[in-house]
Amino acid sequence: MFPQLVTLLGILTVGLLSPGPDFFLIVRNSMSGSRARAFATGWGIAAGLGLQVTALSLGLAVAPALVLRTIQLAGALFLAWIGLKALLARPAADAVTVEEGGRQNANAPASAAALPVAAAAAVRQHLPADRDRKQAAAGFMEGFLCNVTNVKVFVFFVSLFSQFVTAESAWQWRVLMPVTVVVHGAVMWLLITWALLFPPVARQLARAQRWLPRAFGVVLLGFAAWVVREALR
């Protein structure tokens, strides 16, 4: 079982590091200025992997072609939406500066005259937490939908399971393999996110803030067009 596990982990790692929608989404959200959104995106992708593996275990691999095609087209629409958002978004650094400046200007008279100091401090304390929760929820849903609507990932797992699970496989291996897929995905995506947020890497990405997210937007739109083409063939 151990040699099988090592081989499986190697294949999963190579497949995960191959550039695809999940990878570009992780990079894009790591440049968003929100660590909560970036890490939550990785958890969302892991949740998508869990759902895909569960669907495979329940026999969705033999679902009608129309169902899989519908999922593909839904995924293409989602990728196109994310790509357009990246193309039209202003740089995160500028957005944060403008947002903070506007908030300071709006709160200045109230803080000086109307609001007690303790109340103003409480507002400042809760705003970042609320913002982080919203960013984390958005990142999780983006990661989840990006993965779960990627039929190519599902097809990859179908071929992978057919090679590693046979009628003679022990029940322990039948349980261990899907668990390994999900845990490996969660750990790897979180490590990738951590690497992208590592200060030297983050500084390099910040220097490309004005053009790199838009480049990723173009790439995601290209993925969307390719998925539509594959679905309609």
What is the number of domains? 1
Spatial extent as radius of gyration: 21 Å
Morphology call: globular
Based on helices, strands and strand pairing, what is the structural class? mainly alpha
Mean pLDDT: 78
Number of helices: 10
Describe the structure in your own words.
The protein has 233 residues and is mostly helical. It has one domain (2-96, 126-231). Helices cover 85% and strands 0% of the residues. The chain contains 10 helices and no strands. It has helices at residues 2-17, 21-30, 35-57, 65-88, 92-114, 117-148, 151-164, 171-197, 199-207, 212-231. The chain starts with a helix and ends with a helix.
What would you say about this model in short?
The protein has 233 residues and is mainly α. The chain has one domain (2-96, 126-231).
